[in-house]
Amino acid sequence: MMQFMTGSENARSVTARFEPVEIGLLRLAASQLIDLLEGAETHALGTSGDPALRRLLPDAYADDPEAAAEFRRFTADDLLERKVRNARCMLATLGEEPPADIADEPNDAELPATADAAASAEAPVIIDLDADDVQSWLRTLTDLRLTLAERLEIGPDGVPARSADAAPFLNDIYDWFGMVQESLVYAIDV
Fold this sequence. Notes:
By secondary structure, the protein is mainly alpha-helical. It is built from seven helices and three strands; from the N terminus they run ββαααααβαα.
């Protein structure tokens, strides 16, 4: 189970403990966010066919499309670049992903010899985050939740347009990202 603890040197650094499956989920989500953001055409963001991009990068002037387009022309590239940089920071702090051939198809020589060895293969992963990493994580978790909120049709007021039963797995991930974010905020707010 995910857990953040305040770092010993200052209240803005934290140590996080995650289960390997949680690390995999964070890696996958951050990678997909990067793909979404890097695939965005900055000149067309305001008219993007993907509502998640419009939610991540809303128009500055909702009632004035011309002013919104002009504002976007000067800010969109930098904003996209910062969002990608934050997500890449999260990926970097999660560490290297195990090679697929080892993780997917262990041979007899790679199988744990004892129950203790099997348990250590699934041991929690410890991650240290400095103050800059914490900020990148908080921003990326916000972007991930905004993207999922759009996919789940959760309005800006937090009210879902459809029942949680329509996409239970995505709903659970959305809630879990919220718990991760809240835990991180509590860890730095000492």
